[in-house]
Amino acid sequence: MIQAGIIGGGGYTAGELIRILTYHPEVELAFVHSKSQAGNPIHSIHTDLLGEVNLDFTDTVDFGVDVIFLCMGHGQSKTFLESHEIPEELVVIDLSHDYRLNPDFIYGLPEMNREEIRKSRRIANCGCFATAIQLGLLPLAKAGLLQDEVHVTAITGSTGAGQSPGATTHFSWRNNNISVYKAFKHQHLAEILRSLTQLQPDFTDKVNFIPVRGDFARGIFASIYTDCALSGSELQALYEEYYQDAPFTIVTEQNPNVKQVVNTNKCIVHVEEHDGKAFIISTIDNLLKGASGQAVENMNLVFGFPQTAGLQLKASVF
């Protein structure tokens, strides 16, 4: 049994992480830090945890635990770590983008860096868009088959924008609406490109990424295509072989949909061949496989627990 703490406990990813760790068979959740909510019951913010979690938020941090998860806003993790003396043996898993390109942190994508994660004490969790897109492309990159530009359109639910309300996140704007943002310039492109070139060093083409705001709460659905000479059956075999030891990434011959992954830690990948192009669909829950669930996968790997521990699938959402 290990002890865990959460820094920045008020947001969506922290709420999911609290739920997962509360029921994890190998973890005791020692504290959830939040300056703004200190002294208040956790269920006063994360209301779905009423009757399940009896902890209060705290404004103190205990570095005597085994692992801390940083669930603060982008930019705040770096400030926190630089302003505190962090024990070397303490495992730090950061869910922000602050350390994803930092060589002192292992990039927390188990489907690519499983063995490196096992040996690390500092892990930078992947971005949600980056997770879905990379899981759609890793098998091609590993086989050296990315030979041209990659085209991606991916739609995300409103929870991907965080809990603080904004002009493009409140219900009356988002409902029955759709829009593009940060076309070709999304911040997750940097980590995507680094992973692809890690597996295929000669890849120098562009990844053209169009992010789309969807009118639903959670989930990411990425559609991807690029030139490829493999047949449909060869692509299917390539993807199945690459993910044969990945417990949460499922390669299917069926056309997937977002409802299959919402409230689970699954990524479902589908691949087809069309006139010399590989067409890939990759779909995840942005708060689980794209954030808190993947963070727990990384923790499990570090401490030698089964990768699936605490991440059993939830009931059907239909």
UniProtKB/TrEMBL annotation:
<dbReference type="GO" id="GO:0006526">
    <property type="term" value="P:L-arginine biosynthetic process"/>
</dbReference>
<dbReference type="InterPro" id="IPR000706">
    <property type="entry name" value="AGPR_type-1"/>
</dbReference>
<keyword id="KW-0028">Amino-acid biosynthesis</keyword>
<comment type="function">
    <text>Catalyzes the NADPH-dependent reduction of N-acetyl-5-glutamyl phosphate to yield N-acetyl-L-glutamate 5-semialdehyde.</text>
</comment>
<dbReference type="GO" id="GO:0070401">
    <property type="term" value="F:NADP+ binding"/>
</dbReference>
<feature type="active site">
    <location>
        <position position="128"/>
    </location>
</feature>
<keyword id="KW-0560">Oxidoreductase</keyword>
<comment type="similarity">
    <text>Belongs to the NAGSA dehydrogenase family. Type 1 subfamily.</text>
</comment>
<dbReference type="GO" id="GO:0005737">
    <property type="term" value="C:cytoplasm"/>
</dbReference>
<feature type="domain" description="Semialdehyde dehydrogenase NAD-binding">
    <location>
        <begin position="3"/>
        <end position="120"/>
    </location>
</feature>
<keyword id="KW-0055">Arginine biosynthesis</keyword>
<protein>
    <recommendedName>
        <fullName>N-acetyl-gamma-glutamyl-phosphate reductase</fullName>
        <ecNumber>1.2.1.38</ecNumber>
    </recommendedName>
</protein>
<dbReference type="InterPro" id="IPR036291">
    <property type="entry name" value="NAD(P)-bd_dom_sf"/>
</dbReference>
<comment type="pathway">
    <text>Amino-acid biosynthesis; L-arginine biosynthesis; N(2)-acetyl-L-ornithine from L-glutamate: step 3/4.</text>
</comment>
<dbReference type="GO" id="GO:0051287">
    <property type="term" value="F:NAD binding"/>
</dbReference>
<dbReference type="InterPro" id="IPR000534">
    <property type="entry name" value="Semialdehyde_DH_NAD-bd"/>
</dbReference>
<dbReference type="GO" id="GO:0003942">
    <property type="term" value="F:N-acetyl-gamma-glutamyl-phosphate reductase activity"/>
</dbReference>
<keyword id="KW-0963">Cytoplasm</keyword>
<dbReference type="InterPro" id="IPR050085">
    <property type="entry name" value="AGPR"/>
</dbReference>
<dbReference type="Pfam" id="PF01118">
    <property type="entry name" value="Semialdhyde_dh"/>
</dbReference>
<dbReference type="InterPro" id="IPR058924">
    <property type="entry name" value="AGPR_dimerisation_dom"/>
</dbReference>
<dbReference type="Pfam" id="PF22698">
    <property type="entry name" value="Semialdhyde_dhC_1"/>
</dbReference>
<keyword id="KW-0521">NADP</keyword>
